[in-house]
Amino acid sequence: MADTCEITDPYDAGDLPVGDGHTLHWTVSGNPNGKPAVLLHGGPGTGSSPRHRGLFNPSHYQIVQFDQRNCGQSSPYAGNPSVDLSSNTTAHLIADIETLRLDLGIEQWLVWGGSWGTTLGLAYAQAHPTSVSELVLSSVVTTSTADVAWITRSMGRLFPERWQAFQEHLPRNRRDGNLARAYNELLMNPDPTIHNPAALAWCDWEDAHVSLVNGYQPYLRDQEPAFRLCFARLVTHYWANAAFLDDGQLLANATTLAAIPTFLCHGRQDVSAPSDVPVALAAAIPGAELFIAEHNGHGGPAMSGWTRSITDRLVADRTSLD
Q1: Is 270 helix (H, G, I), strand (E, B) or coil?
Q2: Residue 43 near residue 237 (C-beta atoms within 8 A)
Q3: Active-site position among 48, 74, 298, 304
Q4: Which one of 169, 237, 270, 272 is the catalytic residue?
Q5: Looking at the structure, do residues 136 and 30 belong to the same domain, yes or no?
Q6: DSSP one-letter code for 244
Q7: Strand residues in the chain grouped as ranges (E)
Q8: Overall pTM > 0.70
Q9: pLDDT band (50, 70, 90) for residue 1
């Protein structure tokens, strides 16, 4: 079986006002009569990617994608230095997902999330369990205080020279404590001589710690300055506030997902997000299936292939029941 399916163009698209001056850009591809699935992108701030459609057979799935607040083709865009992020929290994003579901007339949908999208997917499913038919999560993170401290500070032991450059970009009096918050202060500064170098330094560190992905090539630092600024602002906004969730909330409330078939996959070599998080979630969610890809990092071919096998199985199960 191929790791991914043919990536088809959207057959429908639009822009949905969701309040607070925000508009979400969304697309739908695949089969209009297929099994609905909504894809939650990572970052926060990367925007949706056509390649994620390849995890779903377009003949059998109605594939919904959207750009989360302030990124991609949604507006206002966080790459604009004047854009305020105060109405962008996990609670806002959860409400946006539900607003989009209702606007598209979908009763229930499979929720797929990758990286940050797994945090958002778990939070959405816990808030709206009857809206979710299944959860399929790849590169699982909960964006807890411990997760953020690991990725911004403790992981410096693995990439010491790169972490030193990352830390030393900050003023000396901001190098202790919450590094994501310290970076966010620079990134929200309207002066481009301050926020642009900070965005590049942040993206250099992100490129460093996801570099164990098979065949990885640096990505973020080579993007346009507005994209780097958008991405770095949104990531630090969420990480500085531990995703605007009570610490440990997603794991503590995992039993509320008992009625939702849940599938988790993670790379053993994912240094950005150690596998203790998905292992703990799988143990806490009744009936959850966990796949650890031994030779993958923060993504990889074995994880894509496994995800495809799950989405194919769920369609086969649905067909057998119809």
Answers
A1: coil
A2: no
A3: 298
A4: 270
A5: yes
A6: G
A7: 12-19, 22-30, 35-40, 61-66, 109-114, 132-138, 262-267, 289-293
A8: yes
A9: very low
Rounded CA separation 150/276 (Å)? 12
Give me the amino acid identity at 21: G
- DSSP secondary structure string for all residues of 286-305: TT-EEEEETT-BSB-HHHHH
91 vs 120: CA distance, rounded Å = 9
In 3D space, the residue among 318, 317, 292 whose CA is nearest the CA of residue 138 turns out to be 292
Q: Are residue 133 and residue 87 in the same domain, yes or no?
A: yes
Q: Check if 298 is active-site.
A: yes
* The one catalytic residue among 74, 115, 138, 139: 115
Q: Does residue 6 lie within any of the structural domains?
A: no
- Both 304 and 232 in one domain: the answer is no
d(CA 196, CA 194): 6
Tens digit of pLDDT for each residue in 218-261?
Answer: 678 888 999 999 999 999 999 999 999 999 999 999 999 999 99
**Beta-strand pair 109-114/262-267:** unpaired
Question: Contact, 13 vs 25, CB < 8 A?
Answer: yes
